[in-house]
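> example.struct
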């Protein structure tokens, strides 16, 4: 769950160089082993929002979830 008070760019979670979940211009994005995955999911300001992502190293694909929607 996130509740951003300002729009823009910010990190959500980071684990060293392995992965990170971050917001750029209000869009949810991820970085896994140096590769950046961009989404079309907007994170609204001043509102609780549930976010998640899954990654398959077999197919090298990612799925973003915002309020349980892909």
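> example.seq
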């Amino acid at each position: 769950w996130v509740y951003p008070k300002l729009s823009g760019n910010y990190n959500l979670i980071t684990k060293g160089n392995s992965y990170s979940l971050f917001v750029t211009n209000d869009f949810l994005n991820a970085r896994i082993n140096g590769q950046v995955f961009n989404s079309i999911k907007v994170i609204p300001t001043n509102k609780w929002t549930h976010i998640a992502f899954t990654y398959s190293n077999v197919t090298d694909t990612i799925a973003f979830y915002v309020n349980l929607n892909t």
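> remarks
The radius of gyration is 12 Å.
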